[in-house]
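Appendix B, record 7
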Amino acid sequence: MAEIQIPKIRQVNIRIDGKNIILLEGGTLLLELPWDVALALAEAIKVQARRIEEGIKADEIIRDQALLMRAGIPIGLSKNPDIMKEAAKEAAWNTELRKAIPSIKSAEKFGIPALIQYPSGTRMEKK
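Structure tokens (predicted):
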């Protein structure tokens, strides 16, 4: 993997030069990339930035996810199993959250219903 060393920068200008993307600082060329490589780099930076954002906003995500779980809304706000596990605990045990949704009684089960798919050609028989 190639390493790119960029000095501390106050302002970077991003421009197009033919089929390449160039980064300039005060007129000095810092980086020149073909357009497709620039897209791949931008996507990689975006993915890593989202991971950092998820860590910084974990408490908010847990609170919002717990509310969705408590209400039975099948939307996951994170793929991080630790965040989802903590949200499930909050949904089950947070007294303030239970008071916020009074229509769901404390003894009721909550969460997202699971669907079980059986192989084709088999039937579930009633007992």
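Remarks on this record: The beta strands are 13-17, 20-25, 28-34. Residues 57-100 form one domain.
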